[in-house]
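Q: What would this chain look like folded?
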Amino acid sequence: MRTMMAVIAGAALLLPASAQAMSVAEFLAKANALKAKGFMAMGSPDIKLLRSEVERASDAYRTDLASARAAGRAPHSCPPPKGKAKIGSNELMAEFQSIPAAQRGMSVKSAFYAMMKKRFPCKG
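A: My prediction, written as structure tokens:
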């Protein structure tokens, strides 16, 4: 049994980071570390990691909206068409930083969904 647990724990370590949901706390820590590096951050792989994390959240969000509409359910929120809702990195960071520290264990995906619901509520 102990050996099996060790194998499972070892296998979890081999999973790519992208397979694990990043928390808002992790996202902000990486983003702030990059910001502190200034120009030297340009070559950091963390830039791509953070961008990919937001892209995955955005893609999942759009997929969930389309699924809700296709099933005749009310959508989570009502954003403009893809590409029209421009949310810059400063806005995203401000939104994530406004999350109380005790709640920053939530996933980037959950925080992204909450931000979109707040910014683009469905009317009527």
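The CA atoms of residues 57 and 110 lie 8 Å apart.
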